[in-house]
Design brief:
Length: about 950
């Protein structure tokens, strides 16, 4: 709609996006639905929102307010103008510590809010599992609950007032009487109170009495029993269908920093469900379920494996996580004792057999509690990590019943699933009778869509039998709104329609939700619609773990369930570019959606190799954070290789990419002519003059070629080496002192080493990573074959392959098995070790002695992204713990931002610096002059130097320094 786009461009300051790629990225949320919006606006102010409402009203175009886009029922997709509040409209307007209240914009993320509140001893306790990306506006629209609602209640219990636009453009303050004195607001309030009074008996008869009811509108807040009526409670849970919130006033709570956790084990699922009603009598702040399916899936996910191993005893069918947080923490041991006694009274003991087996594992360590909380909050994504076409589907996942009925209800629902030849996965809020259950279905198949409909009908009949709620936490959206008449009766459905008509007579705001809804199984609205298909495409890497086109490439992309874990702004690595730009395009979810739409023909012909796809991938730094931290394992770094390869074949590559990709081929000559090769950094004006030609920014010096590169013959041949050194291009030609230091350190430990070499006369070995980074896969394969041929004989002898550069050495574990799948590369992957890993592996080896002294009072350690992604950081920390009298601090950072050539790019260096400034650069600047900065990655060291002036060193150099100090004794 060019007219709508043009009108917005002239009247708003925020970002306006109407291209098909941007619209595609906003076409889905975490539900099973897909609806292309008309366009997207990221508003910067209330004036932008007012203008958008006026224009949309004039044009007859619906408006959809959107936060993190994590809705599971289709609330945040529509054929509408989407207003994304997360990029700009996301600040704290007021903070009243004394009265424990704040006012925020709707786009602020829950975790960001709580980080700001923490120094004041306060928090907002509606702790949804998506706290790292859920916005307060979205949580308000959804009436979110969280795992601690037993103590703190739901959003409607914690929202004091809301300022919002109505569809006519008027702006009002919704709250208790007196909050807004305008005649229009008073008339609206009076009408709603009259409705509540008129329908009080019907509301009492038809509204479920369970705590977890978020279906329909909260017209129970309008009855005389609720006087004085707070009209904000009507907006809570309205899913953006009644008004557009601009400021939300919240009730805050004191932080109870200390807590304890009892992990209750049960031999059968039914017993766990029956026990929940008894455990809550001990007044925990939450009791969360983890079932055996979730345990099994979590064991296969690297970031959760260790937690499962440490917490889970035996083979339980279910765990209940009972959490206690008393105002007086000295009572915690007593609460755990009471929990153990109750489990005993219920007939469970570790020594019991059959159904009597079970018990409590007490968790008092805060770090372990945090890891368990991360596991539980990732329940949805863990469940979605199944690699088959069948996935756990969200449509009956949060029905709620009273606790005494929970065991029988879950048994009945299991019977329904079995009747239709499927099974459910269970987790979440046992303490309030609201379990998340998802039957496994393949919604690409019409028969499974029909099965979904049948299950929904029978499930909701079962919920009605127990007088429960069919919508207990995740809202109505497209998937449940249709069933309001079935669950509430026709009179109540008419009441909901009356509320919508009074607030929004033109149906401007998010139509089709709560009232006037389409059929939940209308496949035209599905992500996998009736015509969904991906034609066969050629891919370069091994995707055989998954299904679909491209040898499984399609299935790997479809693993993204849109739950948005990649939108987190702190902690871990992914997604560093999004943390800088806050754009949906620049995160794993946005890229995965674009890829899925491209390969299935929904973005037009040649979309995979288009300029828009290149822009989509441009800020992906291939950090591999998603490989480890995305619970469904969406590996965007690997997917980017496929995109770059396809584009290179279609369009060729630039001079800039040639200079990057072919570095291993010309490195010998550049090093021999280092004086000439380094002139670009030293001759005034040369960097600026060559900027456009080479694509390298003049604002940075390029890495300096060494005049004395590392030579293999610096290490004497060994008849029986104990380890093999892989000398990568970067350390060989730019910082050869690192390789020399590694040889010296291993020699000090009496480890005989051999340097891997190509056949005589050939250039040195290379992993091929530079070729992969620019899409030259065939060249990368050639390098990989040379490397495999040289290393394989040693690997077959059981020798470790030791390297220094994370991105090169870890290519042996990741990309090379994908390029050249088979037993040989699998063996090499098992033998490939970073230097620190090799040293850490020697613990307990009496023949390995490495005597060290402190080279500095403190070490500030920055981990390379690939070290984090491949789980190597613990080995580095373990090796550095060998250094006595030295404090080791690991900086919690995302990507440093240099990322190979990314930080040198003419159009990416600015984003690169912003990535560094998020966490790493400030931490380095705050470090004392006596602190040594340590980083294994060549790029990381250059980034730190460029942004702070400090000179980091490789761990090999650090260990060498410790050896030198030992020698001065």
């Amino acid at each position: 709609m060019p007219q709508l786009s043009d009108l917005l461009q002239t009247r708003v300051q925020g970002d306006v996006l109407f291209d098909s790629f941007s619209r595609g990225r906003y076409a889905t949320d975490a539900s099973l639905y897909q609806m292309f919006p008309l366009g997207i606006l990221s508003p910067k102010s209330e004036d932008d929102i007012r203008a958008a409402i006026d224009i949309a009203s004039e044009q007859g175009v619906p408006i959809l307010a959107r936060g993190g886009g994590t809705s599971q029922c289709g609330q945040t997709v529509n054929e509408a103008l989407v207003l994304d509040n997360t990029q700009y409209f996301n600040d704290i307007l007021e903070l009243d510590v004394e009265n424990q209240r704040c006012v925020v914009r709707p786009g602020i993320v829950l975790d960001e809010l709580n980080r700001a509140l923490k120094p004041h001893g306060l928090w907002f306790p509606v702790d949804v599992s998506t706290a790292s990306r859920a916005t307060i506006g979205g949580m308000t629209g959804n009436n979110s609950c969280g795992g601690k609602s037993l103590r703190y209640g739901m959003m409607r219990d914690n929202v004091i007032s809301i300022k919002a636009f109505l569809a006519d453009g008027s702006h009002h303050h919704f709250g208790l009487p007196g909050s807004d004195g305008s005649p229009a607001y008073k008339a609206l309030s009076d009408d709603m109170i009259r409705l509540g009074t008129r329908e009080a008996e019907e509301i009492d008869a038809r509204f479920p009495k369970v705590m977890r009811r978020v279906g329909g509108y909260n017209i129970d807040a309008l009855t005389p029993a609720q006087a004085p009526v707070n009209l904000a409670q009507l907006l809570v849970g309205s899913e953006g269908t009644l008004a557009y919130s601009t400021a939300i006033e919240l009730k805050l709570w004191p932080i109870l920093s200390q807590k304890v956790l009892g992990v209750c084990h049960f031999a059968t699922f039914h017993q766990a469900m029956d026990a929940a009603q008894h455990l809550v009598t001990l007044k925990p702040q939450g009791v969360e379920l983890v079932d055996s399916t979730m345990i099994a899936l979590a064991r296969d996910i690297p970031m959760f494996r260790k937690t499962i191993e440490e917490v889970v005893t035996g083979a339980p069918e279910a765990l209940l996580l009972a959490e206690f947080a008393e105002e007086d923490p000295t009572r915690h041991p007593q609460k755990l004792k009471e929990l153990e006694e109750m489990m005993g009274n219920l007939g469970f003991s570790w020594s019991g057999t059959g159904k009597n087996w079970g018990g409590v594992t007490a968790v008092t360590d805060a770090a372990m509690q945090g890891r368990i909380a991360d596991l539980r909050s990732s329940g949805l994504n863990i469940m979605m990590s199944m690699k088959d076409d069948g996935k756990p589907v969200s449509f009956v996942e949060d029905c709620a019943v009273e606790l005494p009925d929970l065991a029988e209800y879950t048994a009945g629902l299991t019977d329904i699933f079995e009747k239709y030849g499927t099974k459910g996965t269970w987790y979440a809020h046992a303490s309030v009778g609201c379990l998340h259950v998802r039957p496994v279905l393949n919604l690409k198949l019409d028969k499974d869509v029909k099965t979904m409909r049948a299950i929904a009908e029978e499930c909701f009949d079962l919920v009605a039998k127990y007088k429960g709620s069919h919508s207990g936490e995740h809202g109505d959206g497209l998937v449940r709104s249709e069933f309001h008449e079935k669950m509430f009766g026709p009179r109540m459905a008419a009441n909901f329609a009356e509320v919508k008509q009074r607030f929004d007579p033109k149906g401007l705001f998010n139509p089709g939700k709560i009232v006037n809804a389409p059929k939940m199984d209308d496949r035209r609205l599905f992500r996998y619609g009736p015509d969904y298909a991906a034609p066969e495409i050629r891919t370069e890497l091994d995707w055989s773990e998954w299904t679909g086109s491209g040898g499984g490439f399609q299935g790997a992309i479809e693993m993204c369930n849109n739950n948005g874990a990649c939108r987190k702004l702190k902690g871990g690595v992914m997604c560093p570019s999004f943390r800088v730009t806050r754009k949906e395009r620049d995160l794993t979810r946005g890229r995965a959606n674009t890829l899925r739409l491209a390969i299935t023909g929904q973005l037009g012909p040649d979309a995979l190799t288009s300029d828009q796809m290149a822009e989509t991938m441009k800020l992906c730094v291939s950090c591999k954070g998603c490989k480890r931290e995305c619970p469904t394992g969406v590996d965007m770094a690997r997917m980017k290789i496929e995109v770059m390869s396809a584009r290179a074949k279609a369009h060729g590559i630039s001079l800039h990419d040639r200079l990057v990709g072919y570095l291993p081929r010309y490195a010998r000559w550049a090093s021999r002519l280092s004086f000439l090769a380094n002139l670009r950094n030293t001759v005034p004006g040369l960097a600026r003059a060559s900027e456009r030609l080479t694509g390298f920014t003049a604002t940075r010096d390029l890495p300096k070629w060494s005049a004395k590169p590392f030579r293999n013959d610096e290490v004497a041949p060994q008849d029986a080496p104990q380890a093999v050194i892989f000398a990568d291009c970067f350390n060989r030609y730019f910082e050869p002192e690192n390789l020399r230091a590694a040889v010296k350190v291993l020699g000090a430990a009496d480890v005989s080493v051999h340097v891997a070499a190509a056949p005589s006369g050939e250039r040195p070995l290379c992993c091929g990573r530079t070729f992969l980074s620019v899409g030259l896969v065939e060249e990368a394969k050639a390098e990989a074959r040379r490397l495999v041929d040289a290393l394989l004989p040693f690997a077959k002898e059981g020798l470790p392959i030791v390297g220094l550069e994370p991105s090169c050495l870890l290519t042996l574990r990741d990309e090379i098995p994908g390029l050249l799948p088979g037993e040989d590369t699998a063996l090499l992957a098992r033998q490939a070790r970073m230097l620190e890993e090799y040293i850490a592996d020697q613990d307990g080896n009496p023949d390995f002695t490495l005597e060290l002294r402190s080279p500095a009072p403190k070490i500030l350690l920055h981990g390379h992204c690939h070290q984090k992604a491949m789980g190597v950081m613990s080995s580095i920390e373990k090796t550095l713990s060998r250094i006595p009298d030295t404090e080791i601090e690991t900086v919690e950072t995302s990507c440093c931002g240099m990322a190979g050539s990314f930080g040198y790019g003419l159009d990416t260096h600015d984003v690169s610096r912003k990535m560094a400034e998020a966490d790493l650069a400030p931490a380095v600047r705050n470090a004392a002059d006596t602190t040594l900065i340590v980083a294994d990655g060549t790029s990381c060291r250059h980034q730190v130097t460029d942004t702070t002036g400090r000179k980091p060193i490789h761990v090999a150099r650090l260990l060498e320094m410790a050896l030198k100090q030992r020698g001065t004794r």
